[in-house]
């Protein structure tokens, strides 16, 4: 027989969700688990695919709208298509890897989860390394496939657009990173799962939409650098002083923002 609990009018039942216990700062036992290395592989592959598809889209768009090659400036996917590429890939990859590694695919997200005690320090550091290596390999694939266009169109590297001050770029990155990290924490909150159990929400969907919306707003300003691995991979392979300068600035502001968004 099942036990039925009838709450009296004006009374409140106990919590219908479980808060996961905080992760220890360092857990050496993770090194002996295959699931740990499987998660690292998942983060590496996911970030590689993310950079490959998105940077390829950016370079393809720039080549299609190059006046010297195509007089039709309305050709290509446009900023809307680029934003869809970034948001859509995050939705797909988070959905695919959430059950393996948590689907971070972004050092800023990993760092935020570390501060919230959702992951151990060891896992966070190794995730960031895997994400950055995956990003570098993903952009390297783009360069190998688009060698004729890669350098000509900036290698998909982030940069502050003409007409915008550094302060404007910083503000855009702060707001963009806040939107993303806030959405990640909200979509994965156990209280939300319990409260909204009658309206199930697929967590990767709002996260992908957050990335999409942020890119729409900040592509014209900084190219959108809310993912340090994305900026690092493009800067290393493109290897231009301006790309490195903008990457360092964007990454510092992304990381410094995380504590205020938790």
Q: What is the chain-wise order of helices and strands?
A: HHHHHHHHHH
In what range is the share of β-strand residues?
A: under 5%
Q: Could you name the ranges where pLDDT drops below 50 across 5 or more consecutive residues?
A: 1-13, 257-262
Number of beta-strand segments: 0
Q: Radius of gyration from the CA trace?
A: 20 Å
Overall pLDDT level: 81
Structural classification: mainly alpha
Helix content: 55-70%
Choose one word for the global shape. Answer: globular
Q: Helix count, per DSSP?
A: 10
User: Main β-sheet, in a few words?
Assistant: none
Structural descriptors:
mainly alpha, globular, disordered N terminus
Describe the fold and architecture.
It is a single chain. The chain has 262 residues and is mainly α. The chain contains ten helices and no strands. The protein has helices spanning 34-64, 78-97, 107-115, 121-145, 147-150, 166-187, 190-195, 204-218, 228-238, 241-257. Helix 2 (78-97) runs antiparallel to helix 8 (204-218), helix 4 (121-145) packs across helix 9 (228-238) and helix 9 (228-238) packs antiparallel against helix 10 (241-257). The termini are far apart. The model is unreliable at 1-13 and 257-262 (pLDDT under 50).
């Amino acid at each position: 027989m099942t036990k039925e609990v009838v709450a009296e009018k004006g009374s409140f039942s106990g919590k219908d969700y479980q808060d996961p216990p905080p992760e220890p700062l360092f857990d050496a036992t993770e090194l002996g688990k295959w699931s740990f290395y499987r998660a690292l592989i998942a983060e590496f592959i996911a970030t590689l695919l993310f950079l490959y598809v998105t940077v390829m889209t950016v370079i393809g768009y720039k080549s299609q709208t190059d006046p010297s090659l195509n007089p039709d400036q309305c050709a290509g996917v446009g900023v809307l298509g680029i934003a869809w590429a970034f948001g859509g890939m995050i939705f797909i990859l988070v959905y695919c890897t959430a059950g393996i590694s948590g689907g971070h695919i972004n050092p800023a997200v990993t760092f935020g989860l570390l501060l919230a005690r959702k992951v151990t320090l060891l896992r966070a550091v190794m995730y960031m390394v895997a994400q950055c290596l995956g990003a570098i390999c993903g952009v390297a694939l783009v360069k190998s496939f688009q060698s004729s266009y890669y350098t000509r169109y900036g290698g998909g590297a982030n940069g502050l657009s003409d007409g915008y001050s550094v302060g404007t770029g910083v503000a855009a990155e702060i707001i963009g990173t806040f939107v993303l990290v806030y959405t990640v924490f909200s979509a994965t909150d156990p209280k939300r799962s319990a409260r909204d159990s009658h309206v199930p929400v697929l967590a990767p969907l709002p996260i992908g939409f957050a990335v999409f919306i942020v890119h729409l707003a900040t592509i014209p300003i900084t190219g959108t650098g809310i993912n340090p691995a994305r900026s690092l991979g493009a800067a290393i392979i493109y290897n231009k002083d301006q790309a490195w300068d903008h990457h360092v600035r964007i990454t510092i502001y992304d990381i410094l923002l995380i504590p205020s968004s938790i």
